[in-house]
Amino acid sequence: MAITLKTAHDIEKMRVACRLASEVLDFITPHVKAGVSTGELDRLCLEYMEQEQHTVSACLNYQPPGYPPYPAATCISVNDVICHGIPGDKVIKNGDILNIDITVIKDGYFGDTSRMFIVGEGSILAKRLVNVTYECMWLGIEQVRPGAHLGDIGHVIQRHAEAQGFSVVREYCGHGIGQVFHEDPQVVHYGRPGTGLEIQPGMIFTIEPMINAGKRDIRTMPDQWTVKTRDRSLSAQWEHTILVTGTGHEVLTVSAGTPARPSSVLEAVAS
Ligand code: MF3
Ligand code: CO
Ligand code: CO
């Protein structure tokens, strides 16, 4: 599959789809509280997408080769769920960490973003995992400019996660995105500097590291979607969709509620 370089028209459409995806996360944030079920959060997100935004969930009925159709509008991955958690009867409780991953389609263009939520008072480990994973995503984003290589992104993410005693999930990665949900290139979250594809202006791809507090090994549940840590350790993930510009990058999945870029990354970039 070829990598598509986006036109000015594509980029304009992607800015809109990506902002809308981020606005679903803004909308759902006040509802993420102890006592709510993941199914209720999913229902609220779908209602907001369809009734308020006039967007379509890219997840609902999504069926890559070898998978059953995905049965919900969002992915909600709690505690030891790494990704693709299917919303349902599970009730969120104090101390849980969860990822909500939103992909919307607007005018045929896909916007993909996820954030972590810590419910009530999280453990010291949970807070450290969520913050380090956020820093990992941002360290990766800061590598994005023409002439850099995809391995530069993976390298900084892996180095930061492993320096903290955490591990990087290998089976799932970032991806090109546009008028197709998952397209080339694959953006892995580990690697060596200077290796892999050279980054070019007009590329749009996601960076979405999944970082485990324990070992990197995964197990997939019988529903064929839900992916958990094999050792039942906590896992965290953040995701942005990124445009490669002539001189660097533009984060497309931004809205009023987007969390700030972390200060530790500012320092790492300055040094
Ligand atoms: N949004 C996920 C990603 O970041 C993909 C979810 S596919 C689904 O690539 F079918 F599980 F929703
Ligand atoms: Co994605
Ligand atoms: Co996503």
Automatic annotation (TrEMBL):
Keyword check for DNA-binding: no
Listed cofactors: Co(2+); Zn(2+); Mn(2+); Fe(2+)
Cross-referenced CDD domains: MetAP1
One Pfam short name: Peptidase_M24
GO terms of biological process kind: proteolysis
List of residues binding substrate: H84, H182
Top-level enzyme category: hydrolase
EC number of the protein: 3.4.11.18
Record protein name field: Methionine aminopeptidase
Gene designation per UniProt: map
